[in-house]
Design a protein that fits this description.
The radius of gyration is 25 Å and the shape is elongated. The chain has 417 residues and is an alpha+beta fold.
């Protein structure tokens, strides 16, 4: 991609109405556009990051037997009334609307009831179970607070997966399998060492849940962690949870974290409430078992921006960066240098390497380097008149600041192996 063709432009000023570091950096670098508090549009750069995150999640969900689908955001009132989650007294984040005939609808904040309602058409026997389905979808939640940038939005992209089972044992086994899949996801995203499986409140879902919490100074949660990092409890359920698992509160230390995932076991509750059953091996009608598994895709993007961003700008882990290399062309008014830079750009692309080429002729070197730091791609490769004379490229690793001088042969060997 040529930087001159990007419709977005970098900004020096920090948005006056945005306090969150992640949103400040993402807006300045041109990854997101703020529409209103808690509502953001994602530009081509931002979308590439989201798609990289989604692909990692997709691969791990497919690996545990998940089948991808997509549900509608329009939710019939009666489906949710049956479980008591239509009322604002139970769930206070609903956005609701009406059809022209005054039929009341909800705009999906979650999909447990919707999935169970749909699956009632496909599950008749224990032979039809287990089933695991997931989607990537925009959720709408009327959050009271939306001050943490894309880490807490009123509109956000989420991966939600739902598994249906014939027995508690099967549900428990699959639930543990998904926990391991989630650990792999966060490891691949570069935050595995700082992410904990956490005992937490189920909120509007169930009494207790498991959250995946990542150490983050900008996080909204307080996590209590044991010294050996084997026990983590959210502060909001500290007393109840420590009693439940038999751990002393004094053995846990508090730290700030951000939630990046949340999973629940509903058991037979939804099946019983909605009268969704299956025939077991003896022909007896039994309620299905349900579990739910969420990853906030846009929230993860915000956490990565918060954790790895520095005073110069964003610092993307290689697995989710929109491009691997930022090819920065200097002295492009010189025809020979320009032709050389164009040749390097074409060769890198032909080698299957994702490259953003700063081909702007009028921009000064300092401006280009500042923009490169702000954009946060893993590697900056500088093409210049001096470099051409020496037959070398300056290669800067964004995360460490390491600077190397590589020949063209060394450059391609380094990035194609």
């Amino acid at each position: 991609m040529r930087q001159s063709q990007l419709f977005t432009k970098t900004r020096k000023e920090v948005p006056a109405d945005e306090a969150a570091k992640n949103a400040q950096l993402l807006i300045r670098a041109g990854y997101v556009h703020k529409v209103m508090a808690g509502v953001y549009a994602y530009t081509p750069l931002g979308l590439r990051v989201l798609e990289k995150i989604k692909q990692i999640v997709r691969e791990e969900m497919n690996a545990v037997g998940g089948q991808e689908l997509i549900m509608t955001s329009l939710q019939p009132k009666e489906v949710w009334e049956g479980t008591g989650r239509w009322s604002e007294e139970t769930v206070d984040v609903w956005f609701k609307t009406k059809l022209q005939d005054d039929t009341e609808l909800g705009l999906a904040w979650s999909h447990e009831e919707a999935i169970v309602s749909m699956m009632a058409q496909y599950v008749n026997s224990y032979k039809d179970l287990p089933i695991s389905v997931y989607q990537f979808q925009t959720k709408l939640r009327n959050e009271l607070r939306a001050k943490s940038g894309i880490m807490r939005g009123r509109e956000f992209v989420m991966k939600d997966m739902y598994s249906l089972h014939a027995t508690k044992e099967d549900m428990d086994q699959y639930y543990d399998t998904v926990i391991e899949a989630y650990k792999r996801i966060y490891e691949r995203l570069g935050i595995g060492m700082d992410t904990f499986v956490t005992f937490a409140s189920g909120g509007a879902f169930t009494k207790f849940s498991h959250e995946f919490q990542t150490l983050c100074d900008a996080g909204e949660d307080i996590l209590y962690i044991s010294d050996d990092k084997t026990v983590a409890v959210n502060e909001e359920v500290l007393d109840d949870a420590t009693k439940e698992i038999g751990v002393s509160k004094e053995a846990l230390s508090p730290t700030k974290t951000a939630e990046v995932g949340n999973i629940f076991k509903f058991g037979t509750e939804k099946g019983e409430q909605m009268n969704v059953t299956f025939k077991d091996a003896d022909g007896e009608e039994k309620p299905i078992y349900l579990a739910s598994y969420g990853v906030g895709i846009t929230r993860v993007m915000g956490v990565l921006a918060e954790k790895f961003g520095d005073e110069k700008g964003l610092v993307w882990p290689e697995a989710v960066a929109p491009y691997k290399i930022h090819l920065v062309g200097l002295n492009l008014e010189d025809t020979e240098v320009k032709d050389w830079a164009e040749g390097v750009y074409s060769s890198l692309k032909d080698a299957g390497i994702e490259v953003l080429f700063d081909d702007r002729v009028e921009a000064r070197a300092g401006e280009k380097f500042g923009d490169s730091d702000l954009l946060g791609l893993p590697y900056r490769v500088v093409v210049s008149k001096k470099g051409k004379e020496n037959g070398q490229f300056e290669v800067v690793t964004r995360a460490t600041g390491e600077v190397r001088q590589l020949s063209e042969e060394e450059l391609f060997a380094d990035f194609t192996n």
